[in-house]
Amino acid sequence: MGLGHLMHHTPNPDTAGLTIDHGGTYDVFGAVFFGGRRDRVYRRLAELSGARPGDRVLDIGCGTGYLTRRLAAVADAGTVVGVDASAAVLERARKITTERNCTYSVGVAESLPGEDSSFDVVTNCLMLHHLPEDVRATALEEMWRVLRPGGRLLIGEFRPPANPLGRHLVGALTGPSMRHNPIHLLEPMVAEAGFEQIGSGDLHPWIRYITALKPGATR
Fold first, then answer.
1. Distance (Å, rounded) from C-alpha 100 to C-alpha 46?
2. Quick check: 57 and 47 in contact, CB under 8 A?
3. Angle at Cα 14 formed by Cα 103 and Cα 137, nearest 5°?
4. Average pLDDT over all residues of the chain
5. Residue 148: CB partners within 8 Å, gap ≥ 6?
6. How confident is the model at residue 48 (pLDDT cuts 50, 70, 90)?
7. Which domains occur in the chain, in start order?
């Protein structure tokens, strides 16, 4: 059983999904797993989110805040809230965060903190595969709910290797939830939730991203 597999399988009574509670270990694992490209990938995700100075941004399943902090830099005078089901991992996030416009809150994707239409941008990266398949649609409904009309959604998910040997190695490290991650279902799920102007692409080495807009007032 791989290190990543162990960290991805922590039950939490507040969510049907699984959480990561070993923040420091996960950061080391992430640095190795991305082969030195993690910072570049996450900065690009922050750009793709469409966040602008002054925006209110919600980062779901934020973990230790790696993407949250990069979103805070983009939002500048705005605010970024990182939400995660694990209080332990948020404790580490708070310790290593220096950005003043960046805060953290315990919460779950299927019942997000926040009022209707209260965020300009909603993001999540490497989060959806932690949820059971029947809960993912509920999480997307919640993302829709808290986004204001005209608001932007960004999803980043793990893209399994195309070759069988690569998938086997990934499975050995992380477990079946990533080895068999059905990224081909992401765009249909986002469309089913009501989002429009859906775009997608890949970031080397592991990320498939989806961008979309909640229809309504323009930004």
1. 17
2. no
3. 85
4. 85
5. 117, 118, 119, 120, 214, 216, 217
6. very high
7. 3-152+159-213 (3.40.50.150)
